[in-house]
Amino acid sequence: xxxxxxxxxxxxxxxxxxxxxxxxxxxxxxxxxxxxxxxxxxxxxxxxxxxxxxxxxxxxxxxxxxxxxxxxxxxxxxxxxxxxxxxxxxxxxxxxxxxxxxxxxxxxxxxxxxxxxxxxxxxxxxxxxxxxxxxxxxxxxxxxxxxxxxxxxxxxxxxxxx
Length: 162
Known about the structure:
The chain is an alpha+beta fold. Helix content is 38%, strand content 19%. It has a 4-stranded mixed beta sheet with strand order 1-2-4-3, with helices on one face.
């Protein structure tokens, strides 16, 4: 995690003298996010849009706590409203680097593996990037996707496709 965070920032920061920053990863925040998302009932699957909405609200709240301005990319699939949550740092017109993770799960499971843990990592990288925002030469878009799992996986309904 430390290497990934440092690598993302080195890529995105200006070419001025820059040493690897100490990311000071907040382990308790990572754990808290995984626990919170994994405990949402019913599961965060496409069959439970209210659970997905609760997850999106949590992610938006965390982005806001870290000083970012979250935005919602709403889209409909089969008449049901879903949303990706997006927050950005860096120069508005800079080249983009997109870092994403998904918050939905497949079926009725807690989804702590790549789902909640991926979102925890995404939020932690966003928190850290905000600290270094003045030095960024690239715009970094942090995107929390939904509908990445079956039955929408590999379709045009996937949040990352939208």
